[in-house]
Amino acid sequence: MKKIVIPNTELELSPMGMGCVNAGLKWDGKDADYLFDAFLDMGGNLFDTARVYSDWVLPESGRSERVLGDWLERSGKRSRIVLITKGGHPDMTCPKPDLHKNRMQKEDMRQDVDLSLRALRTDYIDLYFYHRDDESIPVEELIETMETFVKEGKIRYYCCSNWNTGRMRSADEYCRKQGYRGFAANQALFNLGSRYMKPLEDDTMRYIDEEMQRYHKENPANLAMPYMGICGGFFHNFIEKGEDSVADSPYYTPENIRLAGKVKMAMEKYQATVTQAVLGFYTCQDFQCLPLYGPRNAENLKEAMDSFEIPFEKADFK
């Protein structure tokens, strides 16, 4: 399987990352171990979690990291994977979380990275992300916090999630002046239907819009890692259950209904599943991107990984 290389790093990544937001909720213990091992056997090596996953389900905190750390400790496979986690997310344990109250001061980030290292049972994190942005904090200060963690050996490379393009450019400029490598990856919402979807309720999530796509074309050293890769199941439900099943979806727009027709054509052309056609969209971009995908089971994971063996073309999704 072809690997994705982030320029100016030592990392070679599988073309899809395994999203672990459901670790500890839908799969734990031996079931989780089986999924993680299966992903490795399929050629996958990128595991994506976050300190906040899934703190909104009480009482356990850092549940996803704990499950992934259990597997790493039992299996001894830490050296075979590329590990992502994220810090600085608003507190999700309180009754009414305020998504605009970020925890991105240096002391917040230090607390999160230390808790992550402990839960994951590892000495270092390969790719460590700011999970949100706080535009009241200068980018220079945020970069210096991450550089401190690099110098301490706690992280190898730092990244951002849900930053706007202007803030990323400002961070890049500061890093160039200081001689720092800068952001290695950017996680934001991008999928087949995101261009035409209705706005989400959570306005702290950023989209890879046309401006950000241009940014990634110009800056390949900052790899785009889209989340929500299968559009919340919109195309699956529309094709398999009909229009009534997606009436409440933010993707339910005339443009995406028309795109569903393109998905059906791609399925027929390549003898592909809905999942494979929707993920195939990422293989046809003008910039390199690596989607994240949260599986239900091993069979579902294999289906998704096989998407990257199908020769989709740009015209399939226009």
Please describe what this structure looks like.
The longest helix is centred in the last third of the chain and has 17 residues, at 254-270. This protein has 318 residues and is of the alpha/beta class. It is globular, with a radius of gyration of 19 Å. The mean pLDDT is 97. The protein has helices at 29-41, 63-75, 106-120, 139-151, 165-178, 210-218, 234-241, 254-270, 274-280, 298-305; strands at 4-5, 12-13, 17-19, 46-48, 82-87, 125-130, 155-161, 185-189, 223-227, 292-293. The two termini are 26 Å apart. The chain contains 10 helices and 10 strands. Helices cover 37% and strands 13% of the residues. It has an 8-stranded parallel β-sheet with strand order 9-8-7-6-5-4-3-10, with helices on one face. Helix 1 (29-41) packs across helix 2 (63-75) and helix 8 (254-270) crosses helix 9 (274-280).
Spans where pLDDT lies below 50 across 5 or more residues: none
Question: Count of DSSP helices?
Answer: 10
Helix content: 25-40%
Class from secondary-structure proportions: alpha/beta
Brief sketch in words of this structure:
The protein has 318 residues and is α/β, with parallel strands linked by helices.
Give the key terms.
318 residues, alpha/beta, two-stranded antiparallel ribbon, 10 helices, 10 strands, 13% strand
Ordered list of secondary-structure elements with their pairings:
Layout lengths: L3 E2 L6 E2 L3 E3 L9 H13 L4 E3 L14 H13 L6 E6 L18 H15 L4 E6 L8 H13 L3 E7 L3 H14 L6 E5 L20 H9 L4 E5 L6 H8 L12 H17 L3 H7 L11 E2 L4 H8 L13
Parallel strand pairs: 3-4, 3-10, 4-5, 5-6, 6-7, 7-8, 8-9
Antiparallel strand pairs: 1-2
Helix pairs in contact: 1-2, 8-9
